[in-house]
Amino acid sequence: MAVHAHPDDESSKGAATMAKYVSEGVDVLVVTCTGGERGSILNPKLQGDQYIEEHIHEVRKKEMDEAREILGIKQEWLGFVDSGLPEGDPLPPLPEGCFALEDVDKAAGELVRQIRSFRPQVITTYDENGGYPHPDHIMTHKITMVAFEGATDTEKYPESEYGPAFQPQKLYYNQGFNRPRTEALHNALLERGLESPYGDWLKRWSEFERTERTLTTHVPCADFFEIRDKALIAHATQIDPDGGWFKVPMEIQKEVW
After folding, report:
1. Would residue 121 count as lying in a domain?
2. pLDDT at 207
């Protein structure tokens, strides 16, 4: 089970790993906490499209359906409302009724329901920083941690309402965007005389004090990078197919991984 904040997050974080396990006959479920209703349209070719702007919720659901089919996964919605990414100094208040303002224990109960129904051996989600500090990513971390522990707590989450208790074996944080991998990609590109899109990233990383996590688990999934990219491109409103995500030659990505 992979718990994500928005549709498209499952395709940019851990998609190749999921595709690998699907190919081996493993049941994989993505739980998407929000509908991505407040997400910006990031594909320049689709910006200004009135239909998309007025029907972004429905469009993003269709994109998720396509990505799900490409990855071969199952997928469920928790039904919370996208909080948006606040900008400004000071930051504006979050919109009323959004996911990040939900009661953590109550919201976690919806995930407990999914855990007890699907009964996963392993759960993946974001760390306490959310991978990056988007309020929905941080909230996703919070409810996943509570639900992982609460899946066996029949007093807090009665079986009559949430289903039979079940305890997953492991919980992992997605750490695909880590400094060692980014440095390796950067160096591999420069060694081949190619331009690297990661220079500014690494500079900001050096300026930003952040404790690097110990990477405990590495999944050999490079053979599934093409499927990952196809799933990500399915989220057409959220990715520029000619943008930086796809600048690094596939053979270098696979070699570095």
Report:
1. yes
2. 66
